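Posting this for the archive.
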Amino acid sequence: IFVVNRNEELLCRCLQIVTRIPRDERAILMGAQTTGGFFSGPPMLHYGSTILAYAAAFGLRRAVWMMVTDPQLSLDLNKRPCGTSGFYPLHAAVVNGQTEMYDFLTDPNGADNAGGTDLDGDSGYDDSELVGKSLHLPLKLLADPKKITALAIKTSLSQLTSLQLAALFGNQQMFTHIVRKQAQVRWMWGPLACFAIDAKEVDKAAVVVA
């Protein structure tokens, strides 16, 4: 409820409380997935069912950062996909058009390419540390941009990359954004530039749409 209402401050306070409960109870709570008829149809189906995926789908960068970097939570962006859609948090962000969140989850410099806060130590979440600072995830904790959706109940969404999902949902802005992130500079001459793009995944995305 806090996520879908974008009440990130209260969500982070609740997450801080979660770090104080027993480890086994904490694992159950943070690994839980939404179930029932209400969550089996769009748009709820596309939120990824876990608290981490929900936060990614709604662009709550601070909450995602806390869940991934806090040693008492340490959720993995590349594990525990949604049992219904097969989405990992990155896929939930893509389907919901969160371009900045896509960068935040996959780019070691974050969504703004401006460095920022890195929490590799053992200290827990401290809201005062985040004020006025840009956040980014350590390289070892980033989401895999090439990861495909897991096999799930909704087979039409299974085994797809982020680029293919953007194509499937008709999100041209997200599709273009991902292609540009994947492109490699071949040469630059003043205002001119030549980029190399892996056409294999683009072709597969076209097949998905067809």
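DSSP finds ten helices and two strands in the chain. The first helix runs from residue 8 to 18.
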